[in-house]
Amino acid sequence: MKRPLNQQKTFDIFHYYLKNGFDHTTDEIVAGMGISRKTFFNRYEGKAQSVEIARRFWHTCIQERIREKSLECNHPVEELLLFVWEMRNIRETESTFFQHALQHKLFTTNDSPFMSILNTLIQKGIRQYHFQENINIPLYSIFFLHNVCVEEDWGVNQEQIIRYLLLPLLTERGMELLNDVDMAYLFSLPQ
After folding, report:
1. Which of these, 138, 125, 188, 133, lies nearest to 159 by C-alpha position?
2. Model confidence over 32-55: pLDDT tens digits?
3. 3-state secondary structure of 91
4. CA-CA-CA-CA torsion sign (136, 137, 142, 143)
5. Which partner from 99, 128, 141, 156 sits 20 to 30 angstroms from 85, CA to CA?
6. Which residues pair with 131 in a beta bridge?
7. Would you say the C-alpha torsion 28, 45, 97, 106 has a positive or negative sign?
8. Structural domains for the chain
9. Where are the beta strands (DSSP E) in the chain?
10. What SS3 state is found at 131?
């Protein structure tokens, strides 16, 4: 099935940046996409707008993936672990966008989709009494995302790191739910 033209333009620029990264001139981009400069500038106002379009599309894809996968979770603790797994997966499979977001500090801005997903998830966990109701959500979210996104090598200590990250957040019931999750299995899933 053929995509509408606007969707195809977004899809094309997204895949160009995903495959090639962002450190290219407009001439290199048009050559890599196999289009003319005129076509490029008819589609996008310039390189900055093309990057923004690709980045917004990436955010939308992540939000949809997490939303879809979270439907299979039994509770907010599992959803939070799924979020951690997804962020670690993104680091590996979508590294050009991940590194771009790190360099531009896009993970922890107020309008970040990552902050939005995490804040919504924490609020859900509070309503279900799995997360502490007195937690400072914006501050905790920054702490959490910084540790999940910036720390590169978790090595064999993944479970300990996750427990460290979740300790300030979980209620006693939340801790019981965490103990019931097979984290070794979760983090061994194919990416």
Report:
1. 188
2. 999 999 999 999 999 999 999 999
3. helix
4. positive
5. 128
6. 170
7. positive
8. 1-54 (1.10.10.60), 73-186 (no CATH)
9. none
10. strand
| Identity of the amino acid at 162 | I
First to last CA, the chain: 27
DSSP codes of every residue in 14-46: HHHHHHH-S---HHHHHHHHT--HHHHHHH-SS
User: Phi-psi region for residue 19, left (φ > 0), alpha (ψ -120 to 50) or beta?
Assistant: alpha
pLDDT at 39: 93
Number of Cβ atoms within 10 Å of the Cβ of 119: 16
187: its two tokens = 């983090």
From 134, 133, 87, 94, select the one nearest 113 (Cα to Cα): 87
Are the C-beta atoms of 170 and 80 separated by less than 8 Å? no
Question: Positive or negative CA dihedral for 177, 182, 184, 186?
Answer: negative
Output the six-digit token pair for 132: 């502490």
28 is written with which tokens? 């290199």
Beta-bridge mates of residue 170: 131
Query: Does the CA dihedral 114-116-121-126 come out positive or negative?
Result: positive
Q: Which residue has the tokens 């290199």?
A: 28
Residue 1 has pLDDT above 50, yes or no: no
CA distance linking residue 43 with residue 24, whole number of Å: 17
